[in-house]
Amino acid sequence: MKKAIILLSGGIDSATCAAIAKHEGYEPYAMSFAYGQRHNIELKAAKRIVSALKIAGHTIITIDLALFGGSSLTTSRPVPKNRDLTCRSDKIPTTYVPARNTIFLSYALAWAEVLGICDIFIGVNAVDYSGYPDCRPEYIKAFEKMANLATRAGVEGRKLTIHTPLGNLTKAAIIEKGTALGLDYGLTHSCYDPSPEGFACGSCDSCAIRKKGFDEAGVADPTKYKKQAL
Fold it and tell me: How far apart are the C-alpha atoms of 178 and 188, rounded to whole Å?
């Protein structure tokens, strides 16, 4: 069985990526990050997904991107709420974390070299997303090229491939795909600004995209929102 590194945040996309990798015959090794994010409850979701999918190995990397700031996910700056979804790609929102995917992929690349793995899965999506520049296919293609130039594995002819199976799918299509694979989305977490009890705010971009996805897929949304808790 071929091995693969899965970047696993605990959200819908990364969980679906993990399920797809397993379905395609890979033995997944999951990597998650505690990077100073306000919604670090997502790491509990990542652990639930690892357990449910019986993933072989899971490492959680601790780095403090809050030291640099620059994002409402790593500072006290308010998370944007109730934005018009049709305009969300017009301007990069404050929830963008500078260089986050570059940092995450670099760690995954290092672990892949150590384990002798040539495949990395990342759940980036360029359809239903918040307009982050490091989710675009041209970025992934450029990183893959760099990775094969910058590593011993690449120089020795063991080509690294970065898989983005969700790249051109809507959130509804992603949910449909995961549901068909038996994935329980009740295990996942998406909200950028959850309550201390872990309830989703229901108003941030991530919650809005998640709600829309479940609605369009015709699948019941298992998310626990703040208003439901009142």
Answer: 12
Angle (deg, nearest 10), helices 42-52 and 12-23: 20
What whole-number distance in Å separates Cα of residue 146 and Cα of residue 28? Answer: 23
Q: For the segment 17-45, what is each residue's pLDDT rounded down to a tens digit?
A: 999 999 999 999 999 999 999 999 999 99
Question: What is this structure's pTM?
Answer: 0.94
Give me the residues of the chain with pLDDT under 50, please.
229-230
Structure tokens belonging to residue 195: 């309550």
Cα(158)–Cα(136) distance, rounded to whole angstroms?
Answer: 25
Q: Hey, where are the domains in the chain?
A: 3-229
CATH superfamily of 3-229: HUPs (3.40.50.620)
Instruction: Assess contact for 208 and 83: CB atoms under 8 A.
Output: yes
